[in-house]
Amino acid sequence: MSWEIFVTISHIIGTVLGVGGATFAEIFYLKTDKNGSVAYTVMRIGMIILVLSGFGYLLLLRFSGQEQYIYSPRLWAKLTITLVILVNALLLQIHKLPIKVGSAISLTSWYAALVLGAWRGLPVGYFGIMAWYMVAILAVALLQHFIRKKMIVKA
Amino acid sequence: MTPLLKFLLAAHVVLGLLGVAAFYAVWMGLLRETSPVKFLKASAIWGVVFLVLSWATGGYYYATYYGAAVRSVIRAGQYSWAHNVFMEAKEHIFLFLPFLGIVLAVTLVALGERIDQKPVLKKELAILAGVLSVLGIFITLAGAVISGAVR
User: Fold this and answer.
1) Which of residues 12-41 of A touch B (CB under 8 A)?
2) Rounded (5°) CA angle B54-B125-B25
3) Distance from CA of B99 to the nearest CA of A (A)
4) What residue segments make up the domains of chain B, in order of their start?
5) Does A48 contact B at CB distance below 8 Å?
């Protein structure tokens, strides 16, 4: 197995665990189920694998003389979103962010990272990507609000 | 670049990331009301080990290869600021990061279970872990900026 395949597989596993963990954390939150901590553990493992394999990609670019791709807006948008996930987790830990806001940021960020990773040749610059990302957070927060309201009415 | 230098650069990056992750975990743990003492001690000790190893591998790469073969390429190119600003900052921050980590790990090991009885010290240790994590993330990203400027 070449290093490129190893890094790609690791990156996909990290993404699957992270996005899957974020999705289930959201479902548990909406159902006020206490099993959410398992989803957070899965998400943390996904994050570590994703970051390590992401930097593995940067190393492969460096070793193969394709350093120009390291300044790609898509890559820096992904790095920024990864930082947002880390800061969001920290703010939730110290109770400086309402859980519903943190939950929307976490879910949107993981899916945004997934979309950015898959969408090669995305014709949008860094600030354009970040603007869409912020719009997506608002949309997810609103959607989450309505789903939760509907679930409370049903119960 | 020889296979040994490639290995050292990759080890420097991976070990540095693991070190930053370990200290970020310590930061998160110290922000909890009840400290997971065993986890904090283990994470801080592993963080120091990772940072020291990243220091050694990166230091060897810097001293034997970067100065001679990479710096001149970056400075002659379009992104000379990547060396002048980011590498200059990174190499100085990088030097004292393991020492901050040692202070944190030694204090956590010495305090043990008493950490929750000393809220002021616990808060100061959380700040130290936060500083370590933020500086670690900064020099990680600086490394990416520097690598992208080699053209």
Assistant:
1) none
2) 50
3) 24
4) 3-150
5) yes
Identify which of B23, B21, B31, B35 has the alpha carbon closest to the alpha carbon of residue B112. B35
pLDDT tens track, chain B, 151 positions? 899 999 999 999 999 999 999 999 999 999 998 989 999 999 999 999 999 999 999 999 999 998 888 888 888 888 888 888 889 888 888 888 999 999 999 999 999 889 999 999 999 999 999 999 999 999 999 999 999 888 7
Q: Which domain holds residue A64?
A: 3-154
Q: Which of B14, B34, B141, B147 to mutate to test binding with chain A, by most A CBs within 10 Å of its CB?
A: B147
Write out the DSSP string of A8-34: HHHHHHHHHHHHHHHHHHHHHHHTT-T
Q: Looking at the complex, does the CB of residue B52 fall below 8 Å from at least one CB of chain A?
A: no
Q: Of B138, B101, B99, B104, nearest to B124 (Cα)?
A: B104
State how many domains chain A has: 1
**pTM (predicted TM-score):** 0.89
Question: Nearest CA of chain B to the CA of A23: how many Å?
Answer: 22
B37 at interface of A, judged by CB pairs closer than 8 A:
no
